[in-house]
Amino acid sequence: MYKLYSMQRSGNSYKVRLALALLNAPYEAIEVDILRGESRTPEFLEKNPSGQVPLLEVAEGRYLAESNAILWYVCGGTSLAPESRVERAEALQWMFFEQHALEPNIGAAYFWLSLVKGGRDLQTHALEDWMERGYAALQVMENHLKTRAYFAAGQLTVADIALYGYTHVADRCDYDLATFPAIRAWLRRVEQTPGFVTMDWQPETEVDDQAGIAAGV
Q1: d(CA 37, CA 157)
Q2: Residue 43 to residues 37, 49, 56, 122, 156, Cα–Cα distance (Å)
């Protein structure tokens, strides 16, 4: 069974928990509060020198960091990971986009405005840039979704999970999604997927035997 070190309110951590829930994959959740410095202890840094969550223990003493790398690992061999070469590349294209265009802007705004007390005052100088670049990323997503239900392979994939993590909390950090109807419809489609869980959801100690929608292992 996996051990997942994550923070409940972290969008990057939530992406992994969401994928595991959709796959109905059992795991042990270990809460790491980065706001309290719990990811900077010597014990945690020995597991992940970057001091970040999420972190997945895939075998005893073997750890995998970076949320999208973890997503690709846990989703491999399931319907969440496209089979064809070009569709895999398309999914990865959107996962790279998430990390260089969406997460550094909407993710940063969410962290400082929603999680850090007094964060708005601390980051006043950065907020305008986050807004401008974040809205630009949302427009790219909106344009893509105007003619497609999902981001790759014509179905829900690991790319959608990666992008959902911070897009669904954009309205908590000053972004207005009113002018992005295709994104709002896509968010609803993701949320209607069998096995979907919210960011606040916590796993039970045992996972039932009913297979998740994507568990084509």
Answers
A1: 33
A2: 12, 10, 15, 30, 37
Please report which residue ranges of the chain form alpha helices under DSSP H: 11-22, 42-47, 67-75, 85-97, 108-110, 119-122, 124-145, 158-167, 181-191
Please report whether residue 211 resides in a domain.
no
80 domain-assigned: no
Q: Please name the amino acid found at residue 200.
A: D
- Domain end position, chosen among 13, 47, 75: 75
Final residue of a domain: which of 10, 40, 75?
75
Q: What is the pLDDT of residue 210?
A: 41
Does residue 214 surpass a pLDDT of 80? no
Query: 6: buried, middle or exposed (CB in 10 Å: 19+, 13-18, 0-12)?
Result: buried
93 falls within a domain: yes
Q: How far apart are CA 186 and CA 30, in angstroms?
A: 30
Instruction: Give the model confidence (pLDDT) of 97-148 as tens digits.
Output: 999 999 999 999 999 999 998 998 889 899 999 999 999 999 999 999 999 9
Total domains in the chain come to 2
Does residue 213 sit within a domain?
no
Question: Are 19 and 114 part of one and the same domain?
Answer: no
CA distances from 93 to 71, 83, 136, 147, 151 (A): 14, 15, 17, 18, 10
